[in-house]
Write a structure and sequence with these properties.
- The complex is a heterodimer of chains A (about 900) and B (about 290).
- Chain A is built from 28 helices and 29 strands.
- Chain A is an alpha/beta fold and about 900 residues long.
- Chain A has a 6-stranded mixed barrel with strand order 24-28-25-27-26-29. Chain A has a 5-stranded parallel beta sheet with strand order 3-2-1-8-9, with helices on both faces. A 3-stranded parallel beta sheet of chain A has the order 14-15-16, with no helix packed on it.
- In chain A, a hairpin with an 8-residue loop joins strand 19 and strand 20.
- In chain A, helix 4 runs parallel beside helix 11 and helix 7 crosses helix 8.
- The longest helix of chain A has 17 residues.
- Chain A is globular and about 80 Å long.
- Chain B is about 30% helix and about 15% strand.
- A 4-stranded mixed beta sheet of chain B has the order 10-1-12-11. A two-stranded antiparallel ribbon of chain B has the order 2-3.
- The termini of chain B are far apart.
- The chains are: A alpha/beta (about 900), B alpha+beta (about 290).
């Protein structure tokens, strides 16, 4: 989220695409309802008429996988309305629209020479629309801009006087890009009406900066405040162009001035309470904690890919921060990388990596080049595998052991046959979960060993969680783990000890021993975990009895107390302190900097009292001093407690420092230092994504993705058809998304994944997956809870009444849905150990009445929570789903593939 | 003087997440005996009725209405059912003796509380809670003993329930110090816990835009979009027919078309109900767990 949950209350129009908060994020509806009570409209654009849609002021049905055609049509229509002198848009609104894009209020910029930011008259602080692109679109046309004798800006983008003054302004290139998305074309692609597109476009115009009375949200919609917020979830991301779907929101919201405004922004409704925290921690396979990329180079003599004497410096140079490749003005590369070893020269992300490397690998005293290189070498190099490839490698025997911790891939991953075939071939499968999940019970080869390790639940352990709005909140341990279950922290420490006891950490001790001044340690475990966190298995007794003194602030208490806390409550407190301490004082996670501070001031909003706790994740002050729904002292929002990113000082009371605006938010990434060097090197990069529609490769000059003879590098989002589509005619024109490499296939080339060659005649319906309020993700928690099972005991199939009538199906019939996936067509009895299932997805059909059709004609919706374990069992939707991945993120296209229905 | 309290449901905001149902079950330690069946039962004091999966609202909360002059209280041989000062109709489980004989007044329980309910048969008799081994009458009690002001609390019923009310709210209405489990849980803030006077004033204020409401004791529905039908007097209708019709009744189809169906359904329902009541009583006495 660029904004946050409570900020939704400031909105005057909530546009939901690809999300269903009524059923999947119920708590979100309180904030939407707050906005609606103040006069806001709720618009839902979705292939399925969800319960959210049913509550909305307007519901628009589109075909699965056509969101970009819809948003680009909005963009085109809005631009036309604004430029057309005869349109019904009020003249004042048009003036405000263009004055925003042509903004000349002096933005603050940071010069090559360093020092504080300086205002540069006429450049603007809000919008990049006047910036001039190179003709080939690869980057901005840049120059060395000399403000005065002591302020130079290298690589500063050139600007036109107005958005119309140059054919290559961002605005004009966008206009050119959206030209093919006229109303008729887009309505045909989306399966909606032209009036639907016009309705949403008009709502956009009426609920954006250009129509708003000022930027103070406290006057509310009744007082004339206008802001539109975009909410989305997996309905937008689970497509082969998922990342471009979201980028299309960024284009629209930036153009309409809704970024950095209260009640605006682009807000991902994340699926789990701490999924934001998990990405913060670098759980994605290409990241380490803090959104830093994986190190790739070994400093010397390493065992993998490539070696480079300057590996550490080059890695640091690639992080957001000061270029470290030289000295003096640091604008010229001298190859020494000396500054990479000087903490005073580092930006915040660089300093965080420095601290993290030292803490993770045990040498917190090192400050010279040799020692730092030695421990940097201990970082694993190169990426792991994405979730689809991983299971293919298990089948091939390249991956022999797998630890599944709090996941259930035997339900949640697409094209299940390959997933379970991969799990079957493992030599060792370890599942840590509350219940015997489908993964733990999956069919295994005779020599395979499977362990199920019982873990504690989330209420039996403590720690910080980070919600969608980036707010860190402390979750308390309400009770000790039941029976012989262990908290995740205890299990991790036990694994570390067991690894160390069996020489699993010898590569670390080898490095420590080889240093010129060898480290002093009793064991690797003790150095890395036992000493810092105060517990060693087999030495220190029961983990749950480890104790220390910490702040305690229960939800209902007016003020915090200090007392003795135990077990995970204490150990996670120690870990949080290590992570969230001021990065410049050794904190290891730079985005959480100052989340723990013994100084009780700083990072406050206007009117916010001093912090009452050091561990700000525990802060429970539920007041809103500026009336902007910011609640600034409830928990701690990462990026130094700003609740709305890019806010540029427009929102009353929000943290007012120079990290705020769109013109200077990058400053946070660049440096904490006063002297910022070569800032413009990172300033306003043209954003590139690696995907390309395949039709461009074949037919460049006539493709709608190819305007004016050139394609945009990091192109604007363009419509592509789903990998399996019922509209082959559109696929020929608009293409399907790829990674821009003709040899690279989005789906693995298994013979039983028919993929793009599936004939729509054999599989005439579009399958999309859905969730229900009663069950959660892969289901182990809720399908083992009697109350949830009572409320929703079985899966179902949603079908349009016209399709049902054509097939002779009535509500309540038992039918079978199949797709081209082999595990869908073949009987699953051979690859499941639970209740036998027939092929495909068998469940009873629900057909709507005339007024409550959930899905449109040609669409089938099925929930994916079920499997063959637990109190409630049912067919697995992911036996059917395709594992074509998003070209940028590898998220599978769960929201659109082809299927057919037969009576069971 | 105690305020008469009300649970209010804004029908338009309900999304049938069942958060109220689960929190009620959790706070009162109830079982899960009715997979997929949406009706009030010994283990189910609150339900959100709808036409199962495909229904998208309006969703209506069905639970005891806490009648001003409750017939169930009048007919209990043991005096187990009481109209409390805060408006709640509560059941004292220590007094309830299904089918029992009270020598003090020579009366025998024939489960009159269920059959004489004028609003849909809300007291339900059976083993529905882990708190009791024997079959007892269960119904919504507005979280008797656990919600309200400090003086309303009774440790015999369990821990006091939490609240989301502000300190100023509690000064104005002391009963807001502890909210009923359903109101506290409601994620969409569709429910309110307030005095009857305040709720009626809110519904009646034209500026708030409500076009219809139902309720009289301590349960109220209101909607800005739908004309709400009165809850039926017959438990069979409530349990079996209302779920079927609730979505139709509250959707935008022509309501006149529904009326003849309802009349026919109602007559049929009364007949069927008399037949089924006996069966249900047997099944509940059997106490199949």
């Amino acid at each position: 989220m660029t904004n946050n949950w409570t900020d939704i209350g400031n909105s005057s129009c909530v546009l939901v695409m690809g999300a269903n908060p009524s059923e999947n994020h119920p708590a979100c509806m309180a904030h939407i309802n707050r906005a609606r009570d103040r006069g806001a409209k709720l618009i839902v654009v979705d292939p399925r008429q969800t319960r959210t849609a049913r509550q909305a002021d307007k519901y628009i049905r589109i075909r699965p996988g056509t969101d970009i055609a819809f948003t680009m049509a909005l963009t085109k229509y809005i631009i036309e309305q604004m430029e057309d002198p005869t349109s019904s848009v009020p003249a004042a609104t048009k003036t405000a629209f263009f004055s925003f894009l042509n903004d000349t209020s002096a933005g603050t910029f940071f010069a090559d020479e360093g020092g504080a930011g300086v205002p540069v008259a006429g450049v603007g602080k809000y919008s990049d629309a006047r910036f001039i692109l190179k003709a080939d679109g690869t980057d901005y046309d840049r120059e060395v801009y000399e403000l005065d004798a002591t302020h130079h800006f290298t690589n500063f983008p050139k600007r036109a006087a107005t958005v119309d003054a140059d054919p290559n302004t961002v605005y004009n290139r966008l206009k050119q890009h959206v030209a093919p998305y006229d109303l008729a074309t887009s309505a045909d692609i989306c399966g909606c009406t032209e009036a639907d597109i016009i309705y949403v476009a008009n709502a956009y115009i009426a609920n954006s900066r250009c129509s708003s009375v000022g930027n103070d949200p406290t006057i509310g919609p009744a007082g004339g405040y206008r802001a539109l917020t975009h909410l989305y979830a997996m309905g937008l991301t689970q497509h082969t162009k998922g990342a471009q779907n979201i980028k299309s929101f960024a284009v629209l919201q930036s153009m309409m001035g809704n970024m950095g405004r209260a009640g605006g922004g682009i807000n991902a409704l994340r699926g789990i309470h701490n999924v934001q925290g998990s990405t913060d921690m670098g759980l994605l396979y290409h990241l380490i904690p803090g959104y830093s990329g994986n190190p790739t180079l070994m400093p010397s003599g390493g065992v993998t890919v490539s070696n480079d004497a300057n590996a550490f410096g080059k890695y640091m140079d690639g992080l957001w921060g000061n270029p470290l490749s030289g000295t003096g003005t640091r604008t010229t590369y001298n190859g020494s990388y000396d500054d990479a070893y000087v903490t005073g020269a580092m930006g915040l992300q660089q300093r965080g990596f420095w601290n993290m490397t030292q803490k993770f690998f045990g040498d917190t005293s090192c400050n010279d080049r040799t020692r730092m290189d030695a421990i940097y070498a201990l970082w694993p190099k190169t990426n792991g595998d994405d979730h689809i490839t991983m299971f293919r490698k298990m089948i091939a025997g390249d991956i022999k052991a797998c630890m599944v911790w709090g996941q259930n891939p035997a339900v949640t991953e697409p094209n299940q046959g390959k997933i379970r075939a991969g799990l079957k071939e493992l030599d060792l499968l370890v599942v840590a979960d509350l219940f015997e999940t489908e993964t733990a019970a999956t069919d295994r080869k005779a020599t395979g060993v499977t362990y199920l390790i019982p873990t504690a639940s989330h209420v039996e352990e403590a720690g910080s969680v980070t919600n969608s709005g980036r707010v860190l909140q402390w979750r308390e341990r309400t009770t000790t783990p039941r029976g012989n279950t262990k908290s995740d922290l205890e299990l991790l420490l036990r694994f570390a000890k067991a690894l160390d006891d069996n020489s699993g950490f010898s590569h670390i001790s080898d490095v420590w021993d080889s240093l010129a001044v060898p480290l002093v340690y009793t064991s690797v475990y003790d150095k890395l975990y036992g000493a810092p966190y105060g517990w060693t298995p087999g030495v220190d007794g029961d983990f749950e009895l480890v104790s220390g003194t910490a702040e305690i602030w229960h939800g209902d208490d007016a003020a915090p107390t200090t007392g003795t806390v135990y077990g995970s409550e204490w150990v996670s407190e120690l870990m949080f302190r290590e992570m969230a301490t001021n990065t410049n004082a050794g904190g290891t996670l730079w985005i959480y900097t100052l989340g723990y501070s013994t100084t009780r001031t700083g990072q406050q909003h206007t009117g916010q009292a001093a912090w009452a706790v050091d561990n700000r994740a525990k802060s429970r002050i539920n007041t809103d001093p500026n009336g902007t729904f910011a609640f600034p002292a409830w928990g701690y929002a990462w990026l130094v407690n700003r609740r709305v990113l890019y806010n540029n000082g427009d929102i009353p009371g929000d943290v007012a420092d120079y990290y705020m605006g769109p013109d200077s938010v990058a400053r946070l990434f660049v440096s904490k230092q006063t002297a910022v060097l070569n800032y413009s090197r990172w300033y306003r990069k043209v954003h590139n994504m690696s995907d390309r529609p395949d039709v461009v490769l074949a037919n460049q000059l006539t493709s709608p993705h190819f305007q004016g003879g050139v394609a945009m590098a990091g192109r604007f989002p363009g419509h592509t058809e789903p990998y399996e589509t019922p509209r082959a005619d559109l696929a020929a024109t608009w293409g399907r998304n790829t990674r821009g490499n003709a040899a690279w296939e989005l789906v693995k080339t298994d013979t039983d994944v028919a993929g793009r060659d599936v004939p729509a005649a054999d599989y005439p319906l579009v399958l999309t997956t859905i969730r229900c309020v009663e069950h959660f993700q892969g289901g182990p928690i809720t399908r083992n809870n009697p109350w949830n099972v009572e409320a929703e005991p079985e899966p179902w199939i949603e079908l349009n009444s016209l399709d049902a009538a054509a097939m002779g199906i009535v509500s309540g019939d038992l039918v079978n849905v199949t797709t081209a996936r082999g595990n869908s067509i073949a009987s699953q009895n051979a690859i499941t150990t639970g209740a036998p299932f027939a092929k495909g997805f068998v469940a009873r059909v629900g057909v709507g009445l005339q007024t409550n059709q959930r899905v449109g004609q040609g669409v089938v919706a099925i929930p994916w929570h079920w499997g063959d374990r637990g109190l409630s069992t049912g067919s697995r939707a992911n036996d059917l789903c395709i594992d074509a991945g998003d070209a940028n993120t590898t998220i599978p296209e769960s929201k659109a593939c082809l299927c057919k229905i037969e009576k069971a | 003087m105690a305020n008469e309290m009300v649970v209010f449901q804004d029908v338009d905001k309900c999304m049938r997440c069942n958060g109220c149902v689960i929190s009620c079950k959790r706070e009162w330690k109830m079982k899960a005996l009715n997979p997929g069946v949406h009706k009030t039962a010994p283990d189910q004091r609150v339900i959100i009725k709808s036409q199962k999966r495909l229904d998208m609202g309006a969703f209506l909360r069905f639970s005891c209405w806490h009648c001003p002059d409750p017939p169930c209280a009048k007919r209990c041989p043991f005096g187990a059912i009481t109209k409390e000062a805060n408006g709640a109709v509560s059941v004292d489980h220590t007094l309830c003796q299904p089918d029992g004989f009270n020598p003090a007044n020579g009366q025998t329980c024939t489960r009159q509380c269920v059959s004489d309910c004028q609003k849909g048969g809300y007291p339900k008799i059976g083993v529905g809670s882990d708190l009791f081994a024997d079959a007892k009458a269960y119904k919504c009690t507005l979280c008797h003993g656990r919600a309200g002001s400090a003086t309303d609390l009774d440790p015999a019923y369990g821990e006091p329930l939490p609240t989301r009310a502000s300190a100023a709210d509690i000064v104005a209405v002391p009963e807001k110090a502890h909210e009923t489990a359903c109101v506290y849980t409601c994620p969409s803030k569709a429910m309110k816990w307030d005095t009857k006077a305040n709720i009626l004033a809110m519904i009646g204020n034209p500026a708030n835009g409500y076009i219809s409401y139902q309720g009289e004791g301590s349960m109220f529905w209101a909607s800005k979009k739908y004309l709400l039908a009165s809850p039926k007097a017959d438990p069979f209708v409530e349990d079996h027919l209302t779920p079927l019709f609730s979505s139709v009744l509250t959707s935008s189809v022509k309501k006149a078309a529904i009326v003849p169906t309802l009349v026919a359904g109602g007559v049929l329902a009364v007949v069927l109900r008399r037949m089924s009541l006996g069966e249900e009583a047997v099944a509940q006495q059997g106490g199949v767990i």
